[in-house]
Amino acid sequence: MRRFDLQQYVVYLGFLAIFLFFAITLSDDGFLTSRNLSNIVLQTAPATIMAIGLVFVLSAGEIDLSFGSIVAVSALSAAVVMQDHSMLAGILAGLGAGLAIGWFNGFLVAFLHLPSFLVTLATLGLFAGVARTMTDLRSIPVVNDGFTGFFGSGALAGVPSLVWWTLGAIIIGHIVYRESRFGAHVIATGDNPRAAQVSGIKVPRIRLAVLMISGGCAGLAGLLYAGRLQAAKYTLGESDLMTVIAAVIVGGTALNGGKGSVIGALVGSLLMGMLNNGLILMGLAVSDQMIVRGLIILTAVAVSLRDVNR
Amino acid sequence: MRFKTLITTLSAALLLSGGIVGAQTVGPQGESATPSSTVTVSDDKVASLKAGNYKAALLWHDQSDFVNAVTAGATDEFTRLGIEVVATTSAGFDAAKQRSDIETALAKKPNIILSLPLDPVTSAAAFKEAKDNGVKLVFLSNLPKDYKHPSDYAAIVTDDLFQMGKQAADALAKAMGGKGTVGWIFHDAAYYVTNQRDNAFKTTIEKDYPDIKIVAEQGISDPARAEDIANAMLLKNPDIGGIYVTWAGPAEGVLSALRSNGNKTTKIVTLDLSEPIALDMVKGGNVAAIVADEAYELGRAMAAAGARALAGEETPPFVVAPALAVTADTVLEGWMKSLHRDAPASVMKAKQ
User: Fold this and answer.
1) Do B233 and B114 sit in the same domain of this protein?
2) How do residues B108-144 score in pLDDT, each as one tens digit?
3) Which residue of A65, A135, B209, B337 is 20 to 30 Å from B56, comparing CA positions?
4) What pLDDT is recorded for position A301?
């Protein structure tokens, strides 16, 4: 138990160390301005939401590689529907697309007993293709002010809507993961599926559910991107796969199931955003930014995984 | 000079073409082109610019040789004008990342931003804050939707895209002796830069070379699939005389397909310098010519346009940097002129 706690702290300590480093070295470069700090939270909001979904999937001993494509399909569905219909129809289309693809992944994994790695690798390509076909590679503008305010540029009580979404998703995710029976079943399934089955947990149903949660989270992330960019494009989410997996793993979720943290995933995601931000403000050349970011992630993953696999 | 004809014939060309596929390079909104060589900062403005302690950010779409050369041209010009480059980013073709990069760079309060907006629709919102803060925006090739010159941006600078496609057609036709069959591998996406170049090639072949027929047309969106596409094209047209490939990345795949088919006769022409493509050309392989742009000059002109706007001088809305057809004979000079550095060692060695 003590070792578990220590490993849980790694992401927080790493976050703190990197924050302090940037705060000191970039004190004259605007890093600590409230504008810049809120930028980091806003920029990472979609990735954080995807990360929450992935915590559930990984904890159940499965993986979802397709969420990036789900983001694009969801954002495009919402944007296309909103060209002729209401904001509510757009939201339903976006979330519905995410949940439906999640169900499709989950059905193949849970009931046809196919490995989630291969299923979602295939659907990653499949739905990337669907996203490209949907609008013939065109970007679709989102001109519904209600939608862009609600999901992107708006604010409630002076706090940007993307922060509210992040907060809400983290609180719900954390409670479901830590406090509910369902969360316990997810962890038990990932820890030892056979034991979970024997103890009465409906393992296939859990597998279906976690992939639907991941699909739903990716769908929501797609809506947030569409709101923030005031447009949807097939490339949305394409580059998030590695960032989100790294955020989740650094945040203390085990790749092989049975262990995870929603709060850790949030901090991991903020850590990734802060790295992007700070390395740009340091004025590094683009290649150097990539090298330094890679080295830091490698260090963080090495430290946080060492205990898990011991 | 070619550009003068370009400008004088432009209105007629626009009328004929409806402004979409012009006989010359026109801006995203049908703007007429100004040669980059005329966009300069005069010596008497240099002192006042230096005194301003201005800052610039370079927010690129991706990383490549081309971007490096544009960056070098821009940085050298900014250095001459005493303007500090405070941030450089690459969005990796991700519109969301580009939006984040802009927000991040604004924390450093740049006075000038040079950028290639990834997409007219998504970038309109992304650059809004920078625009509203009075940052002088100089765009590479693309324009955010509904942005107006000069209130919203200082200039768009791009390659002479029509000339690039036309020179590719001329070079391929020359290599084929003015007759034969051609395959056209074009970029299958709504992307202004490649669309203009690809269509200029096609238009030129169809109009200027009656004895050359385009017998195969194939779009490509993923460069990794170029080899498959070329294999299919060769299967259907085994004696095809030449292939145009939309840019150098997929051309490498086409070259590999020709080699594995033992084909030594089909000529390739493509756009943008690349070491493997240039090496094949110098060694007398399938590649007949590479058409490049003067990327360093393009970067210089972008920086100069931004600085002119800061100094309160007029800037032309749409500026083009010249195109350059490079063959085995001119590869060393071409490399220097385009990318402002020596040709790769392998190419130099093969030339000796």
Assistant:
1) no
2) 999 999 999 988 888 999 999 999 999 999 999 889 9
3) B337
4) 78
Residues of chain A contacting B, Cβ within 8 Å: 29-31, 33, 35-36, 39, 42-43, 46, 132, 136-141, 153, 225, 228-231, 233, 235-236, 238-239, 276-277, 280-281, 283-287, 289
Residues B186 and B330 in one domain: yes
Q: Are residues B248 and B265 in the same domain?
A: yes
A229 → closest Cβ in B105, B109, B122: B122
Q: Is there a single domain that holds both residue B153 and residue B302?
A: yes
Domain annotation covers residue B23: no
CATH label of the domain that carries residue A157: 1.10.3470
Which regions of chain A are under pLDDT 50? 1-2, 308-310
Is there a domain that residue B68 lies in?
A: yes
- B94 to chain A: which residues are within 8 Å by CB? 235, 238-239
Q: Say how far apart CA A277 and CA A39 lie, in whole Å.
A: 9
Question: Is-above-0.90 flag for pTM?
Answer: no
Q: Based on the structure, what is the number of domains in chain B?
A: 2
DSSP letter string, chain A: -HHHHHHHHHHHHHHHHHHHHHHHHTTTTTTTSHHHHHHHHHHHHHHHHHHHHHHHHHHTT-----HHHHHHHHHHHHHHHHHHS-HHHHHHHHHHHHHHHHHHHHHHHHTS---HHHHHHHHHHHHHHHHHHHTTT--EE---HHHHIIIII-EETTEEHHHHHHHHHHHHHHHHHHHSHHHHHHHHHHH-HHHHHHTT--HHHHHHHHHHHHHHHHHHHHHHHHHHHTEE-TTTTTTHHHHHHHHHHHTT--TTSS---HHHHHHHHHHHHHHHHHHHHTT--HHHHHHHHHHHHHHHHHHHHHHHT-
Q: What is the ipTM of this complex?
A: 0.78
Interface test with A, best of B70, B100, B133, B220 (most A CBs within 10 A): B100
In a domain, B70, yes or no: yes
In chain A, how many domains are there? Answer: 1
Report DSSP letters for B93-115, one per residue. Answer: T-HHHHHHHHHHHHTT--SEEEE
Asked if B94 reaches chain A (Cβ–Cβ under 8 Å), the answer is yes
Look up residue B335 and give its two tokens. 């490399």
Q: Is residue B175 part of a domain?
A: yes
* Same domain, yes or no: B59 and B128: yes
Domain of B73?
A: 44-158+295-321
